[in-house]
Amino acid sequence: MEIVVFGAGSLGSLIGAKLATVHDVTLVGRDPHMAAVQADGLRVTGLDSFVVHPRAMTEGTDLMADLAVVTVKSFDTEEAAQSLSTGTFDAVLSLQNGMGNEDILNRVLDCPILAGTTTYGAVLREPGRVEWTGRGDIVLGPWTDTATEFVEPVRRAFEEADLDPIAAEDMPSRLWEKLAVNAAINPVTALARVENGALSDPGLGDVAHAAAREAARTASAAGADLAADRAIERTDEVIAATAKNRSSMLQDVAAGRRTEIDAITGYIVDRGDAHGIEVPTNRVLLALVRGWERGQGIRGDA
Questions:
Q1: What's the pTM?
Q2: Catalytic site residue 73?
Q3: Pick the catalytic residue: 18, 73, 178, 244?
Q4: Domain residues for 220?
């Protein structure tokens, strides 16, 4: 299968590298990483060690492939969609954090949209090298009615690359479940500057559980099938499976970059307000991360 991975940072590079072991892959990302991949290949270390040689570029317009996998940060989804709209794809799959990405892709692109979640862990250690820090799962399914026929071919393509894909029909609820896990782990680890495993202890773990519980209540009010017990159980499973991981938000904070707090915790707070659900833990976490971003000059809103 011909596959474009749009947003080849940490996760995109890992997913792209695995796919490139059996498929024709093009990575779209930023220099100097793309330049290093183009020159010497993409090296994976950590849970496995191998080198692949996908095409690598910084300009993602006028591309053509069977599938585009979008792994950009949520605040870059609109720009990614506009670039992809200049090309031709049979289907587009979002493997992003936060909520709302699929709606943006569907609004801009004239092709079937699939939604996906993943708990794989990766860190971009240096240009041309990504460390595989945690083996998780990938769940994918249709977001638009026209995407149903593409679910099995895409699932099979990921399976051929040993990426443990699961096909699901209930993607809205799955996305809310992933959102609850992200809301529990990302801001807490970012603010405390700790690896995921630190949330298995009391204290930080209590904060994470409270955030997940509020997310589940909000999801239920929004019509998704997500019980609080399930959100907490799934959070604990991910914490245990990725104990040595540094969450994506922690990586962003450590590098002084903008985080995805708006599409994760901010989404929960907004939906909570819309449905009359109290989300005090998420509201505090949102204020703290946004306050850090303002202090770094990353955001200018009051």
A1: 0.89
A2: no
A3: 178
A4: 172-295
